[in-house]
Design brief:
heterodimer; A: 556 residues; alpha+beta; Sulfite Reductase Hemoprotein, domain 2; Sulfite Reductase Hemoprotein, domain 1; Alpha-Beta Plaits; 4 domains; five-stranded antiparallel β-sheet; 18% strand; globular; B: 129 residues; alpha/beta; six-stranded mixed β-sheet; 33% helix; binds iron/sulfur cluster; iron (chain A)
Chain lengths: 556, 129
């Protein structure tokens, strides 16, 4: 096993691999081994075992078990990436799938292997704890955290604090439904905080750090953008406030109908005011007696996230790499950029990486990004701290690994869920649809011309690919045994968060692509110079575009 | 066995309580004053996946309840530490469950480490048993 820390001393330490967590993860892996044995001996029934295995990240899928491994706040060390590569190779079919919630999924796991895999992951400071089940899930954040030019403060120390607080929290492991938290530390929200059960947007008032607290966002069959219930929650109040929200939800959330059990429904049914009062009452009750965060402990958490690199002389991008400019984001330190490595090569499943690619990414991260790797909610990989002068060498390394697709933010940078190829809940395929769309527009040569376009495809109403937030969203449904693709227009995951509107009746899989082509040609005809699809759509309203979509009927 | 079994840190017991008991059904309105005054409060869990009782227990303890606190229902041994950490003293489980998950499993669960991230956060001893 190649779990030794890389030779490069500059590599970031695995943030969660301190002694306490190492012991905790080893205990949890042993506990799960025991649970599997007790399931096999009959001491645990399948019904009892189910929530326990889900809490350890193990899903029963269409063809096999799927193991969902957390990538806390999307940050991985090179050594951890190699540990994932090893899991892919030894226990899966040689690849892993990165999801929209900063997790990685292995789709072909044998239940009997799961305890060994968890042991292996624990050795690298990784785990699958609370990546599923009706509990507080992996806390997600901005993939550019610690690097982005527009950052107010690195959100990851707070994400780690929340991770620690929520891990095996005895009160919140059997909630009415799953509970997802996202935190953004920059001006621009790249963590989709308004589509989470609880979103935190870090803010600064004078010297004080605090959070805008957003509750009750979520997609699925009842999409809803979260409501702001506190505009500025002082940093010191964070954990007691979370306790107040979670305990209120634990008691008030519905348990009679799983489709109405998310906190967004609790909030919608109670009304925002009553909900806020319930939380504030509980907060007022517990806040005075709530022990403060130990300053030494929080300082130690902060110290795990190394300061950004020292400034370098800026270097312009060589003209030969012009197409790669889309994959670069401004860095807070001069002479650096954050590089997004697209996991969306045209025609391949979005978000998949092979074991060889994971190792190549680990090597490149060590050489050019201080050993740090991020997973973005767009299912891409980010190398956060790359010196501009290293870009040509990094690019060459990416080309060699088949990872140099320069399509970040373009039409083929599609978010797609596993859909009918893997998922037991799916009503339609999503990966093949994504592949077909990406190759179609590449072959037309229109992709660069169309420019920034966020396209998201979910394989059922659960909306794991966040299709409601796509500029163009596609939802695959089953209509009397036939796949039918419903298109939504005008969604946005960014600061101007918006839910897309359903354009009309669904399309057959054959009719979908010509319809999208008509839609996008209409955009090209209507747009003002430099205007993005979403902006033209907002300026003109949806009618013109709906007409273009349906100009060929819905099954032509 | 056809009586419920009481599980504590030291294993299985027959119910030895003869005094007054205050029952809490998480689905109903809770009379907090009455609960606080009772010597034993029993909180019902409709299913192992219904975690309301954990919040109720924690709130009762926070409100100053010092009597005996009992969880009633089909919790499994894997939840023993959660019950103890939220303030329960014991769990009352149905006989069929006690037969399927024998005392040894519960003793093992009770002996398992209660390593606790929240104590770590607050600078308290996080590895206490
Ligand atoms: S959206 Fe539906 S099909 Fe896609 S991963 Fe989620 S549950 Fe499965």
């Amino acid at each position: 096993m190649s779990l030794d820390l890389p030779a490069s001393a500059s590599a970031a330490p695995a943030p969660q691999a301190d002694a306490f967590d190492a012991a905790f993860l080893a205990e949890r892996a042993a506990e799960f081994r025991d649970q599997v044995a007790r399931r096999l001996s009959g001491s645990l029934t399948e019904e009892e075992f189910r929530p326990l295995r889900l809490m350890n990240g193990l899903y029963l899928q269409l063809h096999a078990y799927m193991l969902r491994v957390a990538i806390p706040y999307g940050t991985l060390s090179a050594a951890q990436m190699r540990a994932l590569a090893e899991v892919a190779e030894r226990w899966d079919r040689g690849y892993g799938h990165f999801t929209t919630r900063q997790n990685v999924q292995f789709n072909w796991i044998a239940l009997a292997d799961a305890p060994d895999i968890l042991d292996h992951l624990a050795g690298a400071g990784l785990h699958a704890i609370q990546t599923s089940g009706n509990c507080i899930r992996n806390v997600t954040t901005d993939a550019l955290a610690g690097a982005a030019a527009d950052e107010i403060a690195d959100p990851r120390p707070y994400a780690e604090l929340i991770r620690q607080w929520s891990t095996d929290h005895p009160e919140y492991l059997f909630l009415p439904r799953k509970f997802k938290i996202a935190i953004s530390g920059a001006e621009t929200d790249r963590a989709v905080t308004r589509a989470h059960d609880l979103g935190l947007h870090l803010r600064r008032e004078g010297d004080a750090i605090g959070f805008r607290v957003i509750v009750g966002g979520g997609l699925g069959r009842t999409p809803r953008l979260g409501s702001v219930i506190r505009d500025f929650l002082p940093e010191a109040d964070l954990l007691p406030y979370l306790e107040a929200v979670l305990s209120a939800y634990n008691l008030a959330g519905r348990r009679d109908n799983k489709y109405k059990a998310r906190i967004k429904i609790t909030l919608a049914e109670m009304g925002e005011t009553a909900f806020r009062e319930m939380v504030e009452t509980e907060f007022a009750r517990i806040r005075p007696g709530f022990p403060p965060v130990d300053p030494a402990h929080f300082a130690a958490i902060k110290a795990r996230f190394p300061a950004p690199p020292a400034p370098r002389a800026p270097v312009p991008l060589p003209p030969a790499l012009a197409d790669f400019a889309r994959n670069l984001a401004p860095h807070k330190v001069a002479g650096h950029v954050a590089v997004t490595v697209s996991l969306k090569p045209h025609g391949l499943p979005p978000g998949d990486a092979t074991a060889a690619q994971m190792r190549a990414l680990a090597d490149l991260a060590e050489r050019y990004s201080r050993g740090e790797i991020r997973i973005s909610h767009d299912q891409n990989v980010v190398l956060p701290h790359v010196a501009q002068i290293d870009l040509p060498a990094l690019h060459a390394g990416l080309v060699a690994a088949g990872l140099a697709t320069g399509n970040v933010g373009l039409l083929s940078d599609i978010i797609a869920c596993p859909g009918l190829d893997y998922c037991a809940l799916a009503t339609a395929r999503s990966i093949p649809v994504a592949q077909a769309i990406a190759t179609h527009f590449r072959d037309l040569g229109l992709e660069a011309e169309i420019g920034e376009l966020r396209l998201k495809i979910s394989g059922c109403i659960n909306a794991c690919a966040h299709h409601h937030l796509g500029h163009i969203g596609i939802l695959g449904l089953d209509r009397a045994g036939v796949e039918s693709y419903q298109v939504t227009l005008g969604g946005d995951a960014g600061d101007a968060a918006a839910l897309g509107e359903i354009a009309g009746p669904g399309f057959t899989s054959e009719a979908l692509i010509p319809a999208l082509e008509r839609l996008l040609r209409a955009y090209l005809a209507e747009r003002a110079p430099g205007e993005r699809f979403i902006d033209t759509l907002r300026r003109q309203g949806p009618d013109r575009f709906r007409a273009a979509l349906y100009a060929g009927g819905d099954d032509a | 066995m056809n009586e419920n079994v009481i599980v504590r840190d030291d294993g299985f017991h027959a119910d030895d309580w003869t005094g007054a008991m205050f029952e809490i059904d998480p689905a109903a309105e809770i009379d907090l004053d009455a609960a606080l005054a009772a010597p034993l409060v029993r909180v019902a869990f409709a299913a192992m996946t219904d975690g309301r009782g954990f919040t109720i227990a924690r709130r009762l303890r926070a409100a100053g309840f010092t009597g005996r606190l009992r969880a009633l229902g089909p919790l499994v041994s894997d939840q023993y530490r959660h019950a103890r950490k939220t303030g329960f003293d014991e769990i009352e489980i149905p006989p069929a469950l006690a037969a399927r998950q024998p005392e040894a499993e519960w003793l093992r669960a009770a002996a398992r480490s209660r390593r606790d991230h929240r104590s770590l956060i607050h600078g308290l001893d996080a590895t206490r048993k």
